[in-house]
Design a protein that fits this description.
homodimer; alpha+beta; 8-stranded mixed β-sheet; 13 strands
Amino acid sequence: LEVCLARRVRDAGSGEDRLIARHFTPLATAPGAFALTDDAAVLEPPAGCDLVLKTDAIVGGVHFFDFDPPDMIGKKALRVNLSDLAAKAAKPLGFLLTLALPGWLDDAWLEAFARGLGADTVCFECPLLGGDTVRTPGPVAISIAVFGAVPHGRMLRRAGARSGDRLVVTGTIGDAALGVALRRDRAAAERWRLTGEQQTGLERRYLLPQPRNALAEALGDCATAAMDVSDGLAGDLAKLCRASGVSAEIDVGRVPLSEPARTALGSEPALIERVLTGGDDYEVLASIPPGRLEALRERAATSGIALTDIGVVVTGDEEPRLLDRGRRLVFAHSSFSHFDR
Amino acid sequence: LEVCLARRVRDAGSGEDRLIARHFTPLATAPGAFALTDDAAVLEPPAGCDLVLKTDAIVGGVHFFDFDPPDMIGKKALRVNLSDLAAKAAKPLGFLLTLALPGWLDDAWLEAFARGLGADTVCFECPLLGGDTVRTPGPVAISIAVFGAVPHGRMLRRAGARSGDRLVVTGTIGDAALGVALRRDRAAAERWRLTGEQQTGLERRYLLPQPRNALAEALGDCATAAMDVSDGLAGDLAKLCRASGVSAEIDVGRVPLSEPARTALGSEPALIERVLTGGDDYEVLASIPPGRLEALRERAATSGIALTDIGVVVTGDEEPRLLDRGRRLVFAHSSFSHFDR
């Protein structure tokens, strides 16, 4: 880490060193972070464990809106990374933070950002280990590298799904994609016949992912393959199948939808494409041997996480088939069409 | 890591997924990188070792010029991080890469960037483990998180320097700061009476740092404290002293200068401020108990790295004293003045 996250901020003048130290040092609770006073952090890997490494960046205007509440942006930046640890069966250990800050950004923004992020470091037991801040003439950009631990050799891979495995997803699918559509098109709420509460619910799912880290250990025990759904269920399923050398059949009618998503789909059935390809779900997709499905269900219930069986892994190397009442849905170039199978 | 570093690039359309896979997969030689085909990487920590973690970002227009050769930018992005591992006595294990790419950036740029970076992954035995690419309306920004290994409990700290320790630096100081000044002010070369070769030499030191990883193990055996000199020797020494609860006396006349830097200083003595505070040196500053100095010297000589004794650690909590022929140099707000001691 840079001293106080702020080595290069010198260029920007002012007491930003101290400012950043004040906001971020409280998040650096791990002994190996040295309270952000050294050039690097130390992590003592848990005995018998491998480290799982992941980096994911979010950029203003691309992955969030500049006017989003900064505390939510702080949470989202960490959560999109935590979501991958969950899907890889890894327990969070800590993270490094790179902040690219435009000139307009004030102390109040930074304070709120750090407050949101800090709450999640506690909630997910994932302390700040270090970081860097840089000035940018561009938008706010936040890059996080997160570290987790799995028992040696036990990281859940994309590869590993076997014919006959059931395919499950956590939570509900499509809410964030509908939420961001609502934020870009205010008239959509009326078209989709959503109440104010339903609209807020969908928008909130875009603003604040709910990574499923509470299920990570159970996934490690039960799944043959897993990944987080961040680019849309259809595309991410295709990736998992490709990595595993298999295909799949999904019953679209079983894909878990929230109540606001069902309302929207009722008004505009074509939204099914957005639901299945829109992304930003940050749920887990996993393949589970049938014999372990019940055990995983029980552990998901204990964790209060919805888990839905949506289909099956089959042999072959074709694209996974998304079956809607017997008809195959095909999406191409963000449009979709129905074909008879 | 993101699949092929390219999960989010989907938004940008085109076959950028494949493009990035082609350029970056060859750099991902570690087995735990899974050839960039999974969502995360695995790192099996060497037995008995701690991990040293560091992240440092560079931004176009701030830490490099947009028209710099992309292969040099790729090398610099990794080297500024490797430099910290060297100073912390850690052996490189691998790194994560986040690339924020503006729309104007073409395949040729990316290919050259990856080629330069790739050469250094071999040279420094530090493979790519994963990464993320994002679109940005701003300048190119590169954030790297690097991982190194040290024997358990042996990371070199800033804290640890003791009264009586000698202060040493590797290489030469001030070249990069003069180099960037030359690039911003073409008339300076004439004022400083530099030959074309001297000018190129200084500019190259800004373009391409030479991290001292070959000395990392020896530093771990000999030093009581160390850090890399990236923000200027004067300021970084003050940080090391503050962390160690000591002060220091530096003989400015002993600070190692390259031949072009000596020429420039001969023409314009006031440049000493820029030399000592300008930064971007990426040399190592370390405190060495006198009894171990000779051993370190020998190992530096074996590695072909210049090592110079520039002063001594003393008790006290004042700012370190920079003594130029008996007179104390004081720099404040990027100006400096002479005071009699």
